[in-house]
Structure formats: C-alpha cells, structure tokens
Amino acid sequence: MHAAFTRRAVIALSLIAMFALGVLAQRSGLFDQIAKYRSDIIYLSQQHMKLVAISGGLAILVGVPFGLWLSRPRMRGMAESLMQALNIGSTIPTLAVLALAMSFLGIGTVPAIFALWVASLLPIVRNTYAGMLGVPAYLVEASTGMGMR
Predict the structure, then answer these.
(1) Could you name the CATH architecture of 44-145?
(2) Whole-prediction pTM
C-alpha cells in the first residue's frame, strides 16, 4: 500500500514538474528560438550523429577484435597490463585529447572523430574482454568439442 502511494506521488510530482518546466520554457521564449533556428538545429544534429556513428563504428571495428585477442589464453599474462594502459589513457580528459588531436590533425571533423574514437575505445575493449572471460567453462569445453578454437 505504502509503495503504491509513493509511486503515484512520484509520478504526480514528476508530471507537475514537467508541466512547470514547459510553462517556463514557453514564457522565456525558448520554443520561439527553437522554431527560429530549426534548420540549423537539424543540420548540426545530423552532423553530430554522423561524427558519432563514424567514431563509434571505428571503435567497434578496433575494440571488439582487440578485446577478443586479449581474452585468448596465450594473452592472459599480458592482458591485465594492456588493460591498465588503456585505463590510464581513459583518465585523460576528452577535451585534452581533442586539443592534442587538433595540434597534429588540424581543425575539422578528423580530430573530432579521433577524440570520440579514443573516448569510446576503452569501454568497448573492457566489456568485450570481460564478456569473454565470463563465458562459463562448460561452454568453452563444449565449443572446443565441436571444433572451435
């Protein structure tokens, strides 16, 4: 009973807050500004999605095979060292990576794609590596018995 009341109260308060934000946005002229710059917003959103798609695709193309390679039995000794090196690389802020990339690659889409690629590479490698290590031993044995390596 208490949980249902709390849930309804949270939903009601959330709806009231969203309505209040909508009224505030209307009165401040936000919707008018969005309508005024609609074509620019659409163009820049498409450009941003293109950058994210390219860098994400490149990160997947590099990160998944690298994570699979690190999970192989012959790489187990080196895998943790390489993962720590990738972790150190992730401590560098993305804006700093972008600044360094711009100094070498110039201004434009290439340094932006590079910075996004670097930022998204570690999670893909880490999760691929962890996922492969999490496969149960009986499944590895079954796949080996079926001829997989």
Answers:
(1) Orthogonal Bundle (1.10)
(2) 0.72
CA distance 33 to 88: 42
Q: What is the DSSP string of 37-94?
A: THHHHHHHHHHHHHHHHHHHHHHHHHHHHHHHHHTSGGGHHHHHHHHHHHHHHHTS-H
Q: Which of 119, 101, 108 is nearest to 58 (CA)?
A: 119
Residues making up the chain, counted from first to last: 149
Give per-10-residue mean pLDDT for the chain (149 aa): 84 94 89 90 95 95 93 84 81 77 83 87 90 87 84
- Return the ∠ at Cα 111 (arms to 105 and 113), rounded to 5°: 145
